[in-house]
Every structure is written in C-alpha cells, then in structure tokens.
Amino acid sequence: MSLTPSIGGTCGPHFFYAEMGELISNSGDEHFAATMLQLVGKWVPIHLVDLSEWTLDELRDRVLGIKLLGSAGVKKDLSVPQTLHALNDHPLLRQMLHMQDPLLIQMNAKANSAHPRGTSHQCNLVSRQGNRRCVISFYRPPTQQGFSLAELSFLKRLSDTLLPLMERHAQSLRQAPRAETEPAHTLLEQSQLKREFYKRLSLSDITLSAREQEVCLGLLTGGTVPQIAEKLSVKNSSIETYLKRAAAKLGVSGRHGLAKWMVGA
User: Fold this and answer.
1) What span, in angstroms and rounded, lies between the C-alpha atoms of 191 and 193?
2) Domain 17-175 fold
3) Which end of the chain is more exposed for a tag (fewer CB within 10 A), N or C?
4) How far is the C-alpha of 85 from the C-alpha of 150, rounded, in Å?
5) Total-model pTM
6) Which residue range or ranges hold the HTH luxR-type domain (predicted)?
C-alpha cells in the first residue's frame, strides 16, 4: 500500500498535540519509542513498537544490516537483540528493496514464523533514504484480531508525520556521542529544536510575535496548554489564540499542522 501524502489537515479533533510535541523533543532519545507507543496507542491498540534502520544492497537484493533504534511495550517472550542479523529472506525485504514512496506493509501472525516478531500481527511503516530504510513496526498479539482497515487507514494518514520524525531520530542516533547524561541530552535536544525552529522561521520569511513564538516552542518541546499558560501568566484561551494566529501565519492547520511544518512534512 503506497503512502502518497493524502492527509489534508489533522488526524482528528482529539489529536493530543502535547504528546506529538514530546515525541519531537525526544528525537534521538531512549524514550522516543515509548512516547510513540503512548501516542499511537490512544487510537490503535498495540502492545509493542520496534524502530529499526535497515541498510540494503539494492544491486544484490540483500540486507547488509538491521539495527534496532528503539523498542517499547509488552515484549514477554518476543525479545530481540539490539542489532539484528541480516535476514535476506525476511518477508519485508522484497517490498522494501526498490521502493520509492513510503509504504505501509501489513503482516498477519504466523504460528511458526522464523522471523523476529513474526508470530504477532504487525503493521510496518517504511520510508527510504538512499540505501537506508527507516521502519516503524507496530505489533499486536496473535490472540487478538489483526489490524482493521480503519486502523490501517489511520496509521497511513499518521505516517507522513511519524516517518520524518523516525528519520530524524535515526540521524540523531548516528550523530550523537555515546556517553551522555540524560539531563544534558534533553537540554541539548530542546536547544537544537529551538535553533531549527528559528531557522525554519527565517527561511519561510514569516514574522511571529514573541508570544506566538513562545507558544509554538512550548508546544513543540512537549509542554501542555495549561503548563504554557502558567509559565506565561495568561489564560489557557490566550494560548489557544496565540496558536491560531501563529498557525494562520505559517499556513498550517492547528497543532498537528505545526508539528508537520516543523519536520518539513
């Protein structure tokens, strides 16, 4: 199923933007997978998420390596190592080798599967960057029903935000120093996000008021409307007003649109 951009505005009126902001700010962090699981799990029941980066040899149609970049949820007896063995007969490989557009690949549970997680129902979101594939895999126990068409449709719409964030997460992990304390890492991520926000604002030649900038940054770094309102000593309704004004100037629709604008989706 090809994932050509089809999302016109938001994923729905009840989209929890604070968690999307937290997901953005956790890019490159060990909590990224858990935040994604919490966000998606509010609409689609899933028991586990794996984030992986595949490196392919497209000329020889084979896998050079598969690296797990994060995992969260109820693993039970489905544990996998941090670095997976190259599996040239993996069922995902055939569809990912010469892909151009992002994909959604559904796989139903198989009782005697020889592949990692193959005994669970799964929905895989895949994007391409050269010979790399970023893969977000959502799993459901074989004792439950597989993913419905409505759930797959929802994940398809959400993928054009999740996949760019996954690519950013993978890039951050490749570039980040290995020895880093958690508080310093969190502060670094927030600082980088702020720099990227102002850079994108400058390139867009758009002027936001100081308050509009504070509200946008507050939401992008995971703050809630009440938290930002308390910090700025204003009412919750004022925060919503600042957001609406900023969204109008940026040409986006609401909170989800701001997140998509930030990651360039």
Assistant:
1) 5
2) Beta-Lactamase (3.30.450)
3) N
4) 33
5) 0.63
6) 222-249
